[in-house]
Design brief:
CATH class of the largest domain: Mainly Alpha
CATH superfamily of the largest domain: 5' to 3' exonuclease, C-terminal subdomain
Distance between the termini: 27 Å
Strand content: 5-15%
Order of helices and strands: HHHHHHHHHEHEEHEH
Number of helices: 12
Largest sheet: 4 strands, parallel
Number of domains: 3
Shape: globular
Radius of gyration: 20 Å
Strand order of the largest sheet: 2-1-3-4
Number of strands: 4
Helix content: 40-55%
Mean pLDDT: 90
CATH topology of the largest domain: DNA polymerase, domain 1
Length: about 220
């Protein structure tokens, strides 16, 4: 969930002292201020920063949250595939094995792992608790096969300020385009963020159009 100030050792300490028992308890940390301030090196400023970071993490995009749930076998890419295919956490929670098996790029072992995860009452309890505590689980439109970017191929490079790489890819796919990892003569656009690297040089050699984040958002209809 990219929560600044919440490293492995900090979580371990919270668990050892009974401050948290499952991942949803992280969002109850504001209620545990007195106990947390008793921990060595945890001062008021550090606690305040941690609470701010937790609050910001409630608005993470759906693929990031699915990845953070710790579903066995589900990495960042698989989490994105699940989010794009099902569109919401509720759709995924209610999916049967056949529906999960429709997703290209997910094998039978991971299919079974995903299905089993959402059949576990304790996992469902934690997800519902996260919802009650304000984690957004934002809906995501399913990937469409048609749209204004149909037939267009994008390569993303560098850091985008207004969105993550995952969100950029989702937005492209929603409009019918696709994203690849390498630049070729078939690439329609290279989207160059900050510190883009060698992909921009290759695009120049091949005559591929390079656009910045502002132009990219215009293509997406976001400005």
């Amino acid at each position: 969930m990219d929560i600044e100030g919440l490293g492995y050792r900090t979580i371990e300490i919270f668990a050892e002292q009974g401050i948290i028992k499952d991942i949803s308890d992280l969002y109850l940390l504001p209620q545990q201020k007195e106990r947390i301030l008793e921990i060595e090196r945890m001062g008021d400023k550090m606690f305040s920063n941690l609470i701010d970071a937790l609050e910001k993490s409630k608005q993470r995009e759906l693929p990031r949250i699915l990845f953070a749930l710790g579903i066995p076998g589900v990495g960042e890419n698989t989490a994105k595939l699940l989010a794009v295919h099902f569109g919401s956490i509720d759709n995924l929670m209610n999916a049967d094995e056949n529906q999960i098996s429709e997703i290209k790029g997910i094998g039978p072992i991971v299919e079974q792992s995903v299905y089993s995860f959402f059949q576990d009452d304790n996992n469902i309890r934690i997800i519902n608790k996260l919802k009650d505590l304000g984690v957004a689980f934002p809906q995501l439109e399913r990937k469409g096969h048609e749209g204004p970017l149909l037939g267009k191929t994008f390569v993303l490079t560098g850091t985008l300020e207004g969105m993550s790489r995952t969100q950029a890819q989702i937005e492209i796919e929603k409009l019918g385009g696709k994203v690849t990892s390498s630049v070729s003569k078939l690439t329609s656009f290279v989207v160059a963020g900050a510190d883009p690297g060698s992909k921009v040089d290759k695009a120049k050699k091949l005559g591929v159009e390079i656009i910045d984040e502002i132009s990219f958002k215009k293509l997406l209809g976001m400005t």
